[in-house]
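Session log. Operator J.P. requested a structure for one protein chain; no other inputs attached. Running the standard single-chain path with token output.
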Amino acid sequence: MDEHIQVRISGTGGQGIILAGIILSESAMYDGKEVVQSQSYGPESRGGYSRTDIIISKETIYNPRAEVLDIFLALSQEAYDKYWKNVNENGIIIFDSNKVIQNKPIPIQNYGLPFTETAMENFDTELVANIIALAALCYLTNTVKISSLKKAITAKVKPQFNEINLKALNIGINMAKELELQEGGTSKDKIWHKLSDKKVPTDKSGLKFQKISHIGIAVENIQEAIGLYSLLGFEISNIEELKEWKIKTAFVHIGESSLELIQPTHKDSTIQKFLDKRGPGIHHIAFEVGDIEAKIKDLQAKDIILIDKKPRIGAGGTKVAFLHPKSTEGVLIEICQH
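Structure written below.
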């Protein structure tokens, strides 16, 4: 397995998507890996969309958001259509061929297997299709050891359902083995050859700007703003109140970056002063760095005026610091480290 893997499992409520994510996370921990797992639901818990993201790494995970996926397991048409573009070009998509129809070819490795049909044929229920699919995913990608996956299933599933789920796991592994043979070999490396060769450039100094983290937007009513972006079809995080900053925030996720909606909670808030002077709109742009303390020293050495000479804690526990607009052509710039 690579040093750092981002996995997304998505489908509809009632398919056991969240359980699959929990089991995968537990398996990775048994393997001695660092893990972050998150989950989200649609408007209905059963029948609406369901998604879980799992980040697995050999090192400390600083950014808890899965942004560019390495592995995507799609158990519904909606999930497939919505997320396949979030998979990196060297990644892999595995989908339930009973639930997903590919309307056109996509430029990413992808494999369809009949998880639902197989579950019905062997167990007369679709409820274990999630375990069959998870087993196939883990076998094909070497994400976790199969022994750890078995251990996690036993730990996370009610004892009376252990037998059926372990049988489902073995069936999923056998399906994956058959796919290997169809692909012309018995080595899992043949299935996931691109991802294992992935080269990720690293910035050991931590000084380089890695990407645009987010754009901050000042709003008068965060609930109304969330309603607008939800209507437009974006996914939005929960509202977080930062009492020290006298604001409420929520993030609108767009690929690798986000919009940060910011509402003041006090008349003395800098966001309230911004709204009073300019009205709602773009407040700042944030760039992500690997080492914010080192970047602050680097900027000071270049005579850049800083509002924050030491990092402060922002939304989601992120370390942040602001540059003064006098040094940046009138643009308020934030640097952040997840």
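Operator note: The longest helix spans residues 162-182.
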